[in-house]
Design goal:
SH3 type barrels; 21% strand; 8 strands; 34% helix; alpha+beta; three-stranded antiparallel beta sheet; five-stranded antiparallel beta sheet
């Protein structure tokens, strides 16, 4: 790819890049025109959709051109002129050929049919666009996110894990002490207090139930003693 210095086109200046950055922040998509250093697409107009980190690549201005979004260097671009872009004049239609005439009693021989030209090969995409599309397709797809859920429902603590839409571990029951250890590792304000409140409420309910059972057991043992004495 030829640089802006070779073609004489200065590309986008620092002030123009700042104007584009402000426009993106305001939700706009500034228009730019491809310079001669962009190759066969020079003179075409696209829309800037993002600015990436210049430290990672020389091509950090992402431009939407047609249905593609490809990165370019600032030297490949310039601010598009205001108003509609001038398009090439349409080719005028060719006049229809007159039908062949025939002389009475002396037919004119029909002209030989011209050979059918082979079908034209599809035009190759512009070199810069094809190279950028290939590089974009080669980027690896990031793995789906991992979600681990600790839940308390109907007096039971459960834990589950999902990666994207795939369930790695279905909800299974854990002890309250294990739930407390997990929450202490996370150390999120407010969450640990909520878990301690739930565990304290369960402890109080269990103690009340133990008292009731002990009282019932004492009554049964007293009744059993009376029956033994009567025997």
């Amino acid at each position: 790819m030829a640089t802006a210095a070779r073609t004489g086109v200065r590309g986008l200046s620092t002030d123009e890049l700042q104007v584009i950055r402000d426009g993106l922040a305001a939700g706009r998509r500034p228009r730019v025109m491809f310079t001669e250093s962009a190759g066969q697409i020079a003179g075409q107009v696209g829309q800037v959709v993002a600015l990436t980190d210049p430290a990672e690549s020389d091509e950090w201005v992402v431009v939407r051109f047609g249905r593609d979004e490809l990165p370019f260097s600032p030297g490949d671009l310039q601010v598009a002129p205001k108003g509609p872009v001038k398009k090439a004049a349409p080719v005028p239609p060719q006049p229809a050929k007159p039908a062949p005439e025939f002389v009475i009693d002396k037919p004119v021989p029909a002209p030989a049919a011209a050979p059918t030209p082979p079908p034209a090969e599809p035009a190759a995409p512009p070199a810069p666009a094809a190279r950028k599309a290939t590089a974009k397709a080669a980027r690896p797809k990031p793995p789906p996110g991992l979600t681990v859920t600790l839940a308390y429902t109907d007096g039971e603590w459960t834990i589950a894990a999902n990666q994207g839409s795939k369930a790695l571990a279905k909800p299974y029951v854990v002890k309250p002490s294990e739930a407390m250890k997990i929450v202490q590792l996370v150390d999120v304000p407010g969450v640990q207090e909520a878990v301690e409140h739930i565990v304290s409420a369960e402890r109080a309910e269990a103690e009340q139930q133990a008292e009731r059972l002990r009282a019932e057991l004492a009554e049964i043992e007293a009744r059993l003693a009376e029956l033994r004495d009567a025997g």
